[in-house]
Design goal:
single chain; alpha/beta; seven-stranded parallel beta sheet; 33% helix; 16% strand; globular
């Protein structure tokens, strides 16, 4: 894996936005996998600024979703589809036709999961997938002990995850109990994986992902299997890395401040 330590979240956002801009320059219709939550917001803000203030053309870019709540009605403001439309698609000036995601309101959820995996493959595969990481090392909603070969499927949210997400709803009772998530195997199909982690609370998970053994207990450690995985962390999230100085020196030796 390529490990990049940046001063803060804003610097990480700028760095990853630059990598996405380079990809879109090479491949204007690239399929970008996006994640929700607060961590990737600096990426989306920096990319929107580039689209607005530079010659970067994003009009042919395609966006796909990492996960989705099950059971929320179409258009619910806290569905992940709505969040991605607000935070990524609309700021980039794209239309909803550029966006694809799993159908969390389908009557047959298992069929919807299979359909989404098939749709990603038929679209040519994900060119760059953005990821966050949980404090327990989960990626997407692949909780500890998820199969490293898993495909898009339905998962039951833990009570703690529902409590954590209750701030986005009127009360805990409104938080869905299930989600559709890309499986670890589905995630690993993407050509480039880029994980952003910030804050000291993520330090142990980052260290286990990067320097620990490959383990289903730390789903993000599956990135060790990928031929093109980049982990971008701020100083706080890097605080548990034994090889932090090595990673800093390796990246500083590169000719340009950019991702591979």
């Amino acid at each position: 894996m390529e490990i990049v330590i940046v001063p803060d979240a804003a610097a990480g956002g700028e760095l990853i936005a630059a990598a996405i801009a380079d990809l879109l320059t090479r491949k204007p219709d690239a399929l970008l996998g996006v994640a929700t939550g607060s961590t990737p917001l600096p990426i989306y803000q920096a990319l929107a600024a580039r689209a607005r203030d530079t010659a970067l053309d994003v009009t042919r870019a395609r966006i796909c979703q990492l996960d989705e709540y099950v059971g929320l009605p179409q258009g619910h403001p806290e569905s992940y589809r709505s969040v991605v439309l607000r935070e990524v698609v609309e700021p980039l000036g794209l239309t909803e036709s550029s966006f694809m995601g799993p159908d969390g309101s389908a009557e047959d959820i298992a069929a919807a999961c299979l359909a989404y995996d098939r749709a990603l493959a038929e679209a040519g595969g994900v060119d760059l997938q953005l990821l966050g990481i949980g404090t327990d090392g989960h990626i997407g909603f692949n909780e500890p002990c998820s199969s490293l070969a898993s495909r898009t499927r339905i998962k039951t949210l833990t009570q703690q995850t529902r409590v954590d997400n209750a701030r986005f709803f009127n009360n805990l009772d409104e938080v869905p109990h299930h989600v559709i998530t890309q499986g670890i195997g589905t995630i690993l199909d993407a050509r480039h994986l880029v994980l952003l982690a910030t804050g000291e609370a993520k330090a142990d998970a980052v260290a286990a992902t990067v320097e620990g053994p490959l383990s289903a207990l730390v789903p993000a450690s599956a990135l060790q299997l990928h031929p093109h995985a980049t982990v971008v962390v701020d100083e706080a999230a890097a605080s548990g890395l034994k090889l932090a100085d090595y990673f800093r020196a390796t990246y500083a030796a590169k000719p340009d401040w950019q991702l591979i």
